[in-house]
Every structure is written in structure tokens, then in C-alpha cells.
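Please, structure for the following, as C-alpha cells.
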Amino acid sequence: MVNRVLVTGGAGYIGSTISHYLKSEGIDVVVIDSLEYGDKSNLPDGVAFYHGRIKERQIFEKIREDVGSVDAVIHCASYISAPESQLFPVKYMRNNVSEFIAMLENLGEIGCRRLIFSSSASIYGTLQGEVSELSAINPQSVYANTKWLCEQISGSLVQQSDFGAINLRYFNPIGTHPDGVSGPSNIESGSLLNELTKAAINGTPFMLTGDDFETRDGTGLRDYIDVGDLARAHVQAVQYFDEITTAATLDQAKKPVAINLGTGNGVTVKEMIEATEQAIGRKLTVKLAPRREGDVPGSYTSTKLAKALLKWEARVPLEKSILAHVRWWQKKLSNEHGC
């Protein structure tokens, strides 16, 4: 039975949304966040918040003194930019892998033996079409490799102890909390929806990079998941953790369970443009540009395992996620500019 959950990176985009969903289910939430990228104002009321890094043992000692043991940890604290990771590989290895190892050691202070790891579908690399949990692992960036390394490290711990782990490999999160209380923190990430959002807000042209991919309309294809749906999947992983990990142990050699999270429907760039236009109620200016180096046709996830193990599937319509995303940035940017 899981009554109290630690969310690392819990003041960030995904971590804070997860924290809201956990609270709504009556689960006690403890958050550790360095606030390097997170914002404490994203958090729900009643969260036990600790400012610092997951490598700091004294934080875990303080949690033990303040609230006692913790039943599970949802690990979201990591650097997440694939392009940046190529420029600063040591920075990413130190933060995403070394601090992860320190956190695993520190979990003993709070009696925590359950890990839900926010992993990434980027570990599958350049695979095309439908991707399942049995698809080949082929990380193409330092960032993706750090996620795969963490899965392997926790896997060794699972095999050698009574520790349990579920790796949630999710695709491209978009949108905000349905009540608008938490949302993304970086509009300059270069993601497709951020570029569409900037075009919608500023009236600038959207640059469509490539229309000759081997997809149904020639443009790149990705699987986009609403952050609220993603948060709900993490809650389901908490609630079904023991059932899932026990069944896995009976079926095979003891190892972590990997589950892909996505809609199961690929969306092309042209379809995203149309969905954005439908969401905001007007046309965007679109200009065709050459392909970017390294771009691939794209992939989407199989949803079979998530439905079977988590009793979960994505349900927020694409247009609703897009509109929430655009409105979030309209509000944030107007506040920043004093409008």
C-alpha cells in the first residue's frame, strides 16, 4: 500500500503536475527540487517541500525526521535537452546518472523500496513506425543514454535485492495541468509545439522543415501525450506498483518493468499545424524550409502494455492540449512583459 510518495524534480513541468494528481488521490507528497528549472509556485498546497539536490543525504535525513518513511519515489529530476547534452556530456552524466546513483543510496534513509522512473522513448533512437517495449534500444544522444544507463543501474539493484522499479518510457509531453496550475517552463526548447505556439502568439511564420519524409503526408511524425494524461499514468503506476512488479517476478527473472506511454497515434507536422489552427481559431503563416540534419520520419508507441498493466490510456484530445499550451504561454509571457 502506497500512502506517501517522494517526487524528485517535483517543482518542474512534469513533476509538479504529477504532484497535483497524487494529492488529488489523497496521497501524501514530498518534493525535492533544486529549483534550477523548477518553480515552487507550481506545487499544490500541503506538499512537504525540500530545496536541494537528490545527492544530498542530509535532505533525506531531514525527510525521515519530519515525515518518516516514504513508500515510493517518482524520479523526475534530470536535465532533458538532447542538443545540450551533446555539447555538455559530462554535465549530463553527472546530473542524470551520478546523482541518480546517490539518490538510490539515500533512499535507504527513508525506507523507500519502490522506484517509478520517468524515462524516455528517446532510448529507442531512430526507430520508425510503432515502437513497443521489446523494440531495440539505440540511444542517439547523451541525454537518451543517461536514461538508459539509469534503467540499467536500477535494474541491477532490483536483481540483487527486494527493490522494485517501473520504468515509464514516455514520448512527447505537451499541454498543462487541466486547471492551469502548472505547465512548461521553457518556450525556447525548439520543440514542435513551442515553435507553433510562438508563431501563434507573435504572428511570425512557422518554418516547416521538410515535407519529403516517408510518412502519410511527407512531414515528420511523433507521438504527443498530454501532461495530465502522463501524470495520471504515474499515479496508476503508484497504485498498481506491487501488483505489476509481483506479476513480473513470477513471469520472468526479477527485473524492472518497462512501460511505454503515449497515445498510440502518430501525428505529423502538418496535422499538428492544422490542430493548432483549429485550437486557436485562425490560420498560421507556414513557410517550407529544408530538412534539419538528423531528422527522421518518426515513431509512435504501442499502448498494449500500458492498458494491460496500468489500466491506462491517453484521453485528452490533441486540440485541447494545444490550446492549454498556447494559453499558458500567452499568460506567462504577458506577465513577464508587465502587460
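The first helix runs from residue 13 to 24. Residues 115 and 165 are 5 Å apart (CA to CA).
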